[in-house]
Amino acid sequence: MDWIFDTIVSPDVDYQQAAFQKQSQLTKPEGSLGDLESLAIRLAAMQQTHTPTLERLSVSVFASDHGIANENVSAFPQSVSVEMVKNFSNGGAAVNVLSRFMQADFEVVDVGLLQDLSLPMVQTDKLAHGTANFLQMPAMTEVQLHHALNAGKKAIQRALLKKAQLFIGGEMGIGNTTSAAAIACGILKQSPDELVGAGTGVSLQAIQSKITIVGQGLMRHQSHLTSPLSILQHLGGFEIAALVGAYLFAAQNKLPVLVDGFIATTAALVAVKINPQVAHWFFYGHQSKEKGHSLILMALKAKPLLNLSMRLGEASGALVAVPLLQMACKLHNEMATFEQTEINNNNQ
After folding, report:
1. Per residue in 41-54, pLDDT tens?
2. Residues 6 or more apart whose Cβ sits within 8 Å of residue 185
3. Is residue 39 part of a domain?
4. H or E element: which one contains 229?
5. Domain count of the chain?
6. Predicted TM-score of the model (pTM)
7. Which DSSP symbol is given to 173?
8. Could you please report the per-residue DSSP string of 64-107?
9. Is 209 part of any domain?
10. Cα(264)–Cα(267) distance, rounded to whole angstroms?
11. Mean pLDDT confidence for 308-315
């Protein structure tokens, strides 16, 4: 597993400076396009080009079941995990609609569903059928953790073979907001009251139960919550670990990442704690309505592109934000400069 600690380089400073200079020559008041300018500058530095583009998108949705679901932390039964993966395979989910609209390459990776599936667009890459209940034991063994991290790495390898210019990771697994909240509490040293939310839409009483369950899990594993990997092993889900592995390997290979909502951002938090340099390769698609997301974004000093009160997961919020990145590139590449026109750029 040494690869997860491999060096991550920063985006190219020379291309960043060249893009900044070009922005100052475009026919507009300096800074008037706001964040669209900085997005294009960042992408130019990441892609080492004067004309950044985002035409080839790769979407991987990692799916797994959770032992903690046995504690009734979700409004839906655990069987919904498999049923949603079938829906993904049939093209009927929100992420399918958005991926088609964006002409993105789409796949689902089963990293730990209770049921084995053989379906179109579904890759199987798992060692276990669901994690253990973290109230009783570590959610996964060290071997299982390493396998899930590698499943994320392999998804990026497939994306790189297709020459992807942007990677978006999604997740599916009943109970995974509970697991993500527990991970975030362990890393940020925050109370479950601050990070546990409604997830699939449970009642206020059920949220209080989730808060208690997360607190009990943190107490049970307290002596092991000493590193991001150990926190992930004891409290996490296979799909969250796969996202962590994907994010790290993408950054190691200079592939920009657009992070989705609460669960995906929790995985990003783990990746940043493993190697802070990974943050240079992240964009954040949106701020989820899930309670703890804003706190995690704040800890990451991350500025999401959108806030539409979404909380679906699946990579849906990130996909909705892609056109903003594409428009930033179009503006950077296609606007005329003052030199090309007769407009006087005297800043008066």
Report:
1. 999 999 999 999 99
2. 191, 192, 194, 195, 214, 218
3. no
4. helix 228-235
5. 1
6. 0.97
7. -
8. E--GGGGG--SSS-TTHHHHHHHHHHHT-SHHHHHHHHTT-EEE
9. yes
10. 5
11. 95
Question: What's the pLDDT score for residue 173?
Answer: 97
pLDDT of residue 50: 98
Domain annotation covers residue 44: no
The domain of 201 spans: 57-322
DSSP 247-260: HHHHHHTT--EEE-
* pLDDT digits 0-9 by tens, 13-66: 999 999 999 999 999 999 999 999 999 999 999 999 999 999 999 999 999 999
Is the pLDDT at 178 greater than 60? The verdict is yes
The catalytically annotated residue of 37, 171, 239, 314 is 314
Report how far Cα 91 is from the mean position of its chain's Cα atoms.
21
Run of H or E including 182: helix 176-188
Are 183 and 232 spatial neighbours (Cβ–Cβ below 8 Å)? yes
Domain CATH for 186: 3.40.50.10210
The answer for 122, left when phi > 0, alpha when psi is -120 to 50, beta otherwise, is beta
Contact 170, 95 (CB under 8 A): yes
Let me know if 314 is a catalytic residue.
yes
Q: Which tokens hold the place of 259?
A: 């992070």
In-domain check, residue 309: yes
Give the pair of three-digit tokens for residue 134.
């973290």
What CA–CA distance (Å, rounded) separates 44 from 51?
Answer: 7
